[in-house]
């Protein structure tokens, strides 16, 4: 007989999920968005929460409802080849190519770099990232303790530290948000801009990867019935994403109100450092270091665990779990030393390509009971989305790359021709059309 989970079980699983999700980008991007959106912060926050909270929750729901054993199994509904391509691309993006290196660089640049001489930054980053990934490696090689370390130790440290900062901001605000000017980037379509800003958290992509960790944890607690696993997954996901929404709104407010005293910061990490120093003085450096490092470290451990376990499943005869951990930790260390700005620049085009495909996969999986999970719906929806995702990828490339490859004419043509292209949402209507066509074909096809 299945065990019935208690409230404390849901809290611990939800805390685990929150700890895996909430890392580097989750801290710096909402604060920077608040600074840019100013008095339009609530509209921008609504868009941000859809992609940074709503989609990750739906991703967890999709994995629970679809009853798939992995992200690869879900993506393989399109075709085995596509399943392998998309799974590898997604895991490398939220893993050693972008997200994991970013955890170290955000920790360093926000909590330590402001207090170092310019000439020392590179060598200091090498030393810091070596220590950061050394500890990450130690924890990742012991995956059985991930629930304890992330859910019961690191999360409370992070939440207590961040809550203290937010309370001070609300009690002694730095400025009246209604009077903060809106920066040019957010003066038109602040909701859509916030929507795209949520891409940078990578959480909807991570949801497809972390869903299986949550499902495995629920099974380890004694739940085996598929319907019960789906229900428990949804409850745990709802707990973690609600907490994320509250923290995001608070961070956006912190960023917007900071404009009452300070000017625009170079990035959200710098803004967080300035705000922390304002409220806590010299102690602010310590508070900020604890907040940032705890948030980023727990995410690095979760990501290294998830990607290593997935690659063992995808390539069972290549490397062991421990060997994959060493490999991905080494790659992450190397890329981290490119610096935060370079990592963000390189990640944006990839996210603009992967996100539409992830969103359509999530929604198709959720509605799969309506068409008995037939592959034709997944295939046609993805086919209609894919070409527009490629256009978004080209448009998001660094301008010098776009010019070198003579691709600028594609963006110019698309801006004049394709609805919602300038908002990064040109794929929405084609995806809906593809889903409807696929749904009709699923009913006609025996």
From TrEMBL:
Q: Name one GO cellular component term.
A: plasma membrane
Main subcellular location: membrane
Q: Where in the cell is it found?
A: Cell membrane
**Keywords from the named record:** Amino-acid transport, Cell membrane, Membrane, Transmembrane, Transmembrane helix, Transport
* A GO molecular-function annotation: L-leucine transmembrane transporter activity
Outline what the protein does: Component of the transport system for branched-chain amino acids.
- Keyword Iron present in the record's keywords: the answer is no
Where are its TM segments located? Answer: 12-29, 41-66, 78-100, 120-141, 153-171, 204-222, 234-256, 279-312, 324-344, 350-368, 375-397, 417-441
Q: Which family does it belong to?
A: Belongs to the branched chain amino acid transporter family.
Membrane topology recorded in Swiss-Prot or TrEMBL: Multi-pass membrane protein
InterPro entries from the UniProt entry: Brnchd-chn_aa_trnsp_Livcs
> What is one GO biological process annotated to this record?
L-leucine transport
Output this protein's name: Branched-chain amino acid transport system carrier protein
This protein's gene is called brnQ
């Amino acid at each position: 007989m299945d065990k019935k989970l208690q409230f404390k079980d849901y809290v611990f699983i939800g805390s685990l999920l929150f700890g895996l999700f909430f890392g580097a980008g989750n801290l710096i991007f909402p604060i920077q968005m608040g600074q840019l959106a100013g008095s339009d912060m609530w509209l921008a926050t609504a868009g941000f929460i859809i992609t940074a909270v709503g989609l990750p929750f739906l991703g967890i729901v999709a994995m629970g409802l679809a009853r798939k054993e992995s992200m690869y199994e879900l993506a393989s509904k399109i075709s085995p080849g596509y399943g392998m391509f998309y799974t590898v691309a997604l895991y490398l993006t939220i893993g050693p190519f972008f997200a994991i290196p970013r955890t170290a660089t955000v920790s360093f640049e926000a909590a330590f770099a402001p207090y170092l001489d310019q000439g020392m930054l590179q060598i200091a980053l090498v030393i810091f990232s070596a220590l950061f990934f050394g500890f990450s490696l130690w924890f990742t090689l012991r995956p059985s303790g991930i629930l304890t370390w992330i859910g019961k130790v690191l999360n409370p440290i992070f939440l207590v530290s961040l809550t203290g900062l937010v309370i001070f901001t609300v009690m002694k605000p730095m400025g009246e948000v209604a009077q903060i000017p809106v920066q040019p980037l957010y003066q038109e379509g602040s909701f859509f801009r916030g929507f795209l800003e949520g891409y940078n958290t990578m959480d909807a992509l991570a949801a497809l990867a972390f869903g299986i960790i949550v499902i495995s944890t629920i099974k380890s607690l004694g739940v085996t019935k598929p319907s019960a696993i789906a229900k428990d997954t949804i409850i745990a996901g709802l707990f973690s994403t609600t907490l994320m929404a509250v923290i995001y709104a608070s961070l956006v407010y912190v960023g917007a109100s900071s404009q009452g005293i300070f000017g625009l910061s170079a990035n959200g990490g710098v803004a967080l450092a300035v705000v922390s120093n304002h409220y806590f003085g010299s102690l602010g450096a310590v508070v900020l270091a604890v907040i940032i490092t705890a948030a980023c470290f727990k995410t690095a451990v979760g990501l290294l665990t998830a990607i290593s376990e997935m690659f063992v499943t995808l390539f069972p005869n290549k490397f062991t779990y421990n060997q994959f951990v060493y490999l991905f930790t080494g790659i992450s260390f190397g890329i981290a030393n490119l610096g935060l700005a370079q990592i963000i620049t390189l990640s944006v085009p990839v996210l603009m390509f992967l996100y539409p495909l992830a969103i359509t996969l999530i929604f198709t999986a959720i509605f799969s009971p309506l068409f008995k999970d037939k592959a034709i719906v997944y295939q046609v929806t993805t086919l209609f989305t894919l070409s527009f995702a490629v256009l978004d990828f080209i448009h998001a490339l660094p301008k010098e790359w776009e010019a070198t490859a003579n691709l600028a004419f594609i963006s110019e043509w698309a801006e004049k021709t394709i609805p919602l292209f300038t908002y990064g949402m040109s794929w929405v209507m084609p995806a809906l059309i593809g889903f409807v066509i696929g749904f009709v074909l699923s009913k006609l096809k025996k």
